[in-house]
Amino acid sequence: RRMGLRVWQSPRIKSVYTPRGSLQALFRQYSQYGFWKVAVIRKHRGMASPRHAAPGLFVASIFALAGWSALAALAGRTSIARAAAEVLGIELAVYALASLGAAFALGGSLPWRERAIIPVVIATYHVSYGLGFLTGLLRRAARRKDGRDGTAGYFTALTR
Asked: Residue 150's pLDDT is what?
């Protein structure tokens, strides 16, 4: 599409998706997606959409705010520690409310018990993808002595 070409789709193409059987398997799947998205971005010299960076930025902000709060507290800067903790709390509260809203919207006719797990699944998607993305950035930046990047050995086995 970037080259001005068209993408054709055919109604004859059939696909089947089997959801992961556990949150752990889902976490591993989305960690892998995030990790390898870094290689895709590098190959294409850009992101297809800014949304690919959103989970990584979300997870990085959690680490940064928690770390900032802890370091400020250790340094005796309680007002800075409190402010960072409050911003983190607001960020997580907004995220939780948005996830609950999405669960309500997406849950439709699902029983309440199944609807209640949707925010946990959404958080698993975002946190695992974000961690995978950040890991991909860090591993990509870690050059080995032989000149290859540091991604060798990560997620070489598929999650399915």
From this structure: 59
